[in-house]
Write a structure and sequence with these properties.
- 39% of the residues lie in helices and 20% in strands.
- With 421 residues, the chain is α+β, with helices and mostly antiparallel strands.
- A hairpin with a 2-residue loop joins strand 5 (95-99) and strand 6 (102-106).
- Helix 4 crosses helix 5 (115-130) and helix 12 packs antiparallel against helix 13.
- The mean pLDDT is 88.
- InterPro entries: DNA/RNA_pol_sf, DNA_pol_Y-fam_lit_finger_sf, DNA_pol_Y-fam_little_finger, DNA_polymerase-Y, DUF4113, Rev_trsase/Diguanyl_cyclase, UmuC.
- Belongs to the DNA polymerase type-Y family.
Length: 421
């Protein structure tokens, strides 16, 4: 048996943990640089605030309806997510963290007399310990657990937030209730194709006469999904894997027009990429530089620019990767043009212990020792105080976050204060 545990309106719930006066009141969360709405509380949804709406377009409406707006506080969300997952790990050792607010749990080999009651215990513990509400769906397969979770979330009075698909009758009823666009893995384009084929629900998706069409459009992935919805488990919990690409990209809060200013940003992005490589004990061969001009202020239709180069040896040194990124920047940067976004992506990643050494061209061995000292210092202090010479010591990510809440659990300066009288 599998369970999918999903945190309800996770970002909004995180903001309410330390601001309980907002319980029952409408909240929305904005994306990076306070761009679009990416999370809404149930109260904000009821007021008709659309998901993905640009903030400047609904600014007046948000004020009129007295909706509280927050910038994204990923440090807080990430920390609370790890605490939720730690609690769920107390219910079974078999857990797959699927996203920041979702996890699959597997109970094979365990004896659970009442799954719905077990789900209610998960809800109770996450609520009592963290004040984070969750919904829990149980089913024999991961895809059906997704369906069960949606039912638990949609009908809180009837299910109390925990629902189990454990009979054929419940499975068919749940599939007939689930719209095809809500099925796990059916995106916007597939949804249009499915409806053109007269597939409107998850139940339609499982009918035998649609098997050939699904195989043609979705291949083996569609076939697996269909089997899962039919109750045949073919997807197991996935083990955490090292990432194949690491990307650090950011939109700027203002315009960047000079090479020196852009060089500082690119070097910083490359340094963070190298840091992430070392954290997962990997090295990379490929480095990609990405620049985006202000598309509203260019004469030509092209405003995105990419350049990739391959290192002669695998590396995770900040100095090596930054130097290559800056070299590429010199080749594609146009002085005086207005740039709004940039990024560095490292690819062709291999485990550090599989690195091959070369006879004639190799990285300076002192780099590794220097990186170890820098990483140890940053781990001890929690701040990136040691940087390359072309980085700005005073500068951080500089995202536009005018409505940012405190980092209550990750920054000692923002720790929650209680006045005792």
């Amino acid at each position: 048996m599998y369970a999918l545990v999903d945190c309800n309106n996770f970002y909004a719930s995180c903001e309410r943990v330390f601001q309980p006066q907002l319980n029952g009141k409408p909240i929305v969360i904005l994306s990076n640089n306070d761009g679009c709405i990416i999370s809404r509380s149930d109260e904000a949804k009821a007021l008709g605030i659309p998901m993905g709406a640009p903030e400047f377009k609904v600014r007046d409406e948000l004020k009129q309806k007295n909706i509280t707006v927050f910038s994204s506080n990923y440090a807080l969300y990430g920390d609370l997510s790890s605490r939720v997952m730690a609690i769920l790990g107390q219910f079974t050792p078999n857990i797959e963290v699927y996203s920041i607010d979702e996890a699959f749990l597997n109970f094979d080999g365990m004896t659970i007399p009442d799954y719905q009651q077990y789900g209610l215990e998960m809800k109770k513990r996450t609520m009592k310990w963290l004040s984070i509400p969750v919904s829990v769906g149980f089913a024999p397969t991961k895809a059906l657990a997704k369906v069960a979770n949606k039912i638990a979330r949609k009908f809180p009075k009837e299910t109390k937030g925990s629902y189990v698909i454990d009979t054929e009758e419940k499975r068919i009823k749940g599939l007939k209730w689930t719209k095809i666009e809500d099925v796990w893995g059916i995106g916007f384009r597939l949804n249009k194709k499915m409806k053109a084929q007269n597939i409107h629900t998850a139940y339609d998706f499982t009918l035998p006469h649609n098997e050939a069409f699904i195989k043609k459009e979705m291949g083996v992935v569609g076939n697996r999904l269909r089997l899962e919805l039919l109750g045949q488990s073919v997807l197991e919990l996935e083990e955490p894997k090292d990432r194949k690409n690491i990307a650090i990209t950011r939109s700027f809060d203002g315009n960047i027009t000079t090479f020196d200013e852009m060089k500082e940003r690119v070097s910083t992005f490359a340094t963070v990429c190298a840091e992430k490589l070392r954290k997962q004990n990997s090295c990379c061969y490929g480095v990609i530089l990405y620049l985006r001009k202000d598309k509203y202020k260019v004469d030509k239709p092209k405003y995105n620019f990419y350049k990739m180069e391959t290192l002669p040896f695998a590396s995770n040194s900040s100095m090596t990767i930054s130097a290559l990124a800056v070299k590429m920047l010199k080749e594609i940067f146009e002085e005086g043009e207005i740039y709004k976004k940039a990024g560095v992506i490292v690819t062709q990643i291999i485990p550090q212990d599989q690195k091959q050494f070369h006879l004639f061209e190799e990285e300076n061995p002192k780099h590794q020792k220097i990186m170890e000292v820098i990483d140890a210092f940053h781990k001890k202090t929690g701040e990136r105080k040691i940087r390359l010479g072309n980085q700005d010591l005073q500068r951080t990510w500089k995202m536009k976050q005018n409505l940012l809440s405190p980092k209550y659990t990750t920054d000692i300066q923002d720790i929650f204060k209680v006045n005792c009288h």
